[in-house]
Amino acid sequence: MTRTTVPDRPVSVASDLSEDAGSDATVMNGGPSVELRRSRGSRLLAVVCVLGGVVLLALPSDGAPLRTIIAVGAVALGLVALFSALRPFRFGIDADGLTIKRPGLRRSIAWAEVDALVLDEPPRRDGRPEPPRLLLVPPPGVPVAPVTARHPIDGRPAIELLVLDQVREQPEQVAAALTSYAGDRFVDLPALRRAAFADPDLPASLRGYQMNRVDRLIRLGQDALVSGDAQIRQAARNEIEHARAAGLPVAQRGYGTLAAEAALDALAAALADHPTTDRRTTP
Fold first, then answer.
1. Model's pTM, two decimal places?
2. Pick from 118, 141, 173, 275: CA 20 to 30 A from residue 246's CA?
3. CA 92 to CA 28: how far, in whole Å?
4. What are the pLDDT digits (tens) for 115-166?
5. Distance between CA 110 and CA 106 in Å, rounded?
6. Per-residue pLDDT tens over the stretch 45-96
7. Dist CA 35 CA 215 (whole Å)
8. Are 1 and 140 in contact, with CB atoms under 8 Å apart?
9. What is the largest CA-CA distance in the chain?
10. Which of 150, 192, 152 is nearest to 279 (CA)?
11. Using CA atoms, how far apart are residues 254 and 164, in angstroms rounded to an integer?
């Protein structure tokens, strides 16, 4: 199996990662390790659900069983979410590797156990961005259990380590820390995709092209450009042109057709003439 190599992009740890004494963990600036801090959003939402349900239960029911059912459901949902949010969480990055403590995964991972760490961003859903995720691809021959993801470019089995909406740090900060410690094991796919073909600014309109379909085609083309493989580029271009020839689906609210067609034209042109992205592959 071959692996597409990408140029090293040395980035220093973000300077605004600093100590936060009152947080779940401490992010050390210039120290020997970086600790990502758990987002407070899930806890806040859980508390709101519980309090809202309690308030509804405290009000006179006046024979309104539906309101009681909704209140009990809100309390139960909030308690479950609060329990999950209060479970131990740690995501540490240092010179030795990763230390992870979260539901479903509690272990230390040495850099020797990592072939690639991939920061990926799923395609937009209904025009809205999805939170990035961090994937671990083990070295060849090392079993992956359980397989919870695939490398977005070459399809190798991977483990989803983290969804970045679970932490307070921005994706750029996480990418900087991983680049500093993981070196060329770390691949920032969103950055590579934008460098190969910038995400087009597509306005929404009535009776436009279905957003998910257009976004999937754009992602297909971006990934083909990042792969650096001429055959993959040609196959992606053919698929895009075939989809356009067959007619893109129209939705009540979608992307403006003229802007979407212009973006797909530009993408097809990039796929047809992009020799500078060809790279050697290594076993």
1. 0.72
2. 275
3. 11
4. 999 999 998 888 888 999 999 999 988 877 788 899 999 999 999 999 998 8
5. 13
6. 666 676 776 776 677 766 667 767 777 777 676 666 655 655 678 899 999 9
7. 34
8. yes
9. 73
10. 192
11. 27
